[in-house]
Write a structure and sequence with these properties.
The protein has 22 helices and 28 strands. By secondary structure, the protein is an alpha/beta fold. The protein folds into three domains: 351 residues, TIM Barrel (Alpha-Beta Barrel); 135 residues, NAD(P)-binding Rossmann-like Domain (Rossmann fold), CATH 3.40.50.720; 121 residues, FAD/NAD(P)-binding domain, CATH 3.50.50.60. The strands form seven sheets. Strands 3-4-6-9-10-11-12-13 form an eight-stranded parallel barrel, surrounded by six helices. A five-stranded parallel beta sheet has the order 16-15-14-17-28, covered by helices on one side. It has a five-stranded parallel beta sheet with strand order 19-26-20-21-22. A hairpin with a 2-residue loop joins strand 24 and strand 25. The chain is globular and about 75 Å long.
Length: 644
Amino acid sequence: MSEIMFQPLQLGSLTLPNRVVMTTVKLGYGTKEGDVTDRHIAFYVRRAEGGVGLITTEPMYVQRNGREIPPQLGIYDDRLVDGLRRLTDAVHAAGGLIMAHINHAGRAANPKLVPEGERVSASDVFCPATKITPRPLSKEEIREVVAAYGAAARRAKEAGFDALEIPFSHGYLIHQFLSPHSNRRDDEYGGSLENRFRFGREVLEAVRAVVGDDFPLVVRMNAQDYVEGGLTLDDALEIAPLLEQAGVNGLSVTSGTMCESVPFCLYPTGTPKANLLPMAARIRERVSLPVIVAGRIRTPQLAREALAAGQSDLIGLGRPFLADPDWVRKTAAGEEEYILLCGACHQGCLAELRQGHGTSCMFNPLTGREWKVTLTPTDSPKRVMVVGGGPGGLEAAYIAAQRGHHVVLYEQEERLGGQFNLAAMAPHKEELLDMIHYLERVTQRAGVEIHLNSPVTPEMVESADADVVVLATGGIPLTIPFPGLEETRWLLATDLLDERSEAQVETETAFVIGGGLVGLETADYLASQGKKVTVVEMLDDVGGDMDVLAKAVLMKRLKQEGVEIHTGTKVLRLTADTVTAQRGDEEVTFPIETVVMAVGVRPNRALPDALAESEKDIRVIGDAVRPRKALEAIQEGFQVGLEI
């Protein structure tokens, strides 16, 4: 018998081919009116081709005042059905099954999209994330929302979806009624659990009335709100049987609210890994329904163990399918070492979504571009020389080799990965190394010839038998020659984070100059070793180069670790045991033992500049152009490999 992950499972009347579900992921590929686009269709079809047992759509809003992002999918109007049917037909043609996720965000709706009078919830409880205080829904309005859910469910069935999912979770509208934290009502919709559950039960009844008893219905529920006064696991153990009695066919276990505890909804770097598994197991014991669980279950081995232990019936993966749409197919084929694992970095997914670009993936530049980009074999194979084995250079080498070019890569260090190896040394970021290990394996399998410990000179490039030269030489850490620096015990953050270096902070305290990503993660690294750390940043805020959610998680941890942070503070000069800085109109002095400099990088332009007049076809990518994030380096490497 095949392993449990690839055994079929019955979800109501629907037979799933395996135990892996793609959970809902916000994409931002729609129009401002909520229409399906070709970008949506290509994205979901690609996941169907990868063997996902059941795909869940991004949240589709049932009323316009329940939107979270401008280009979100909608299901609030009959005119949207034809587009949704195009989506389901395409997924079915690719051999997949697809579940509609319908939602109203309530007080978590985007205030830029929802006029003040239309911002609604169970009660007028302030939402810290949206900075709004909603107004309570009247009983008549409650009936209108219930009807909107019913109408949305009818449209989902008409559009050909295979199942329907409704969130009683994440601090969205139904959860806002369910949780005593956000429900302060004194009518029949507030107070006791029975009353708080009433709105959700009415939604389920309205949905069942239009889709029939045989249509699979899943409810997403919180195991834990992580909010004072919110729902706990004990509450979840009471709610699960109520949902079964209400006629749902499956439960999807999650956590957190999008108002107060966003990290436990979206699980960025620094949040617990797979922490919902034991809670899902407890919930599963209380019902006879199939249970789905998600939350940083990124590897097949962890999924396999959870299923075998009976912690869940189905494994939910969201962002892992952004990184690798073939996660299921590769697992089934015994090619787990070739899975591109999600690093929970949020750089390409949520950070890009917030900027209005739509969800992508730092590790997989094809994500979100499936509708317009295909990797096709080249008609004219070329000899390609890649200089630099960081993520950008490796990506360029891999894509070019995949397309049929002969690629040789040179790296001056004894290992591949470049600055990515240092980033992975920061606490909770060890998963970033999986990206480098993946690129090592796939470049070798694609036939890339790799030379380590191989510095490249301009003469080598000019004499090389190469049609195209890709320079991915990266950046060089900056050093600011502050007056008195030579009297001070100091080192670079990059040297400190390099496990091969002998550089270390031997004193009990450390003074970090620079409050960007590297400076903050260096402070975290040192604090985890028990050092007393102070960070100074000349700008008015720290972490300006970080995603807001990842920054929030890190800043909370730095506070817990006792790291002192001083913004608007510009270092002027140093002595052996003091730093003098300018803060506003006054000078301030800090005692120091060891100074760690994290003030950025400059492009490593030695080779590109030396070859500026070369007649060879030379392409420069990544930090060698200008210092940015790994996201840009990998995207540029991908694009170069595509264009050669």
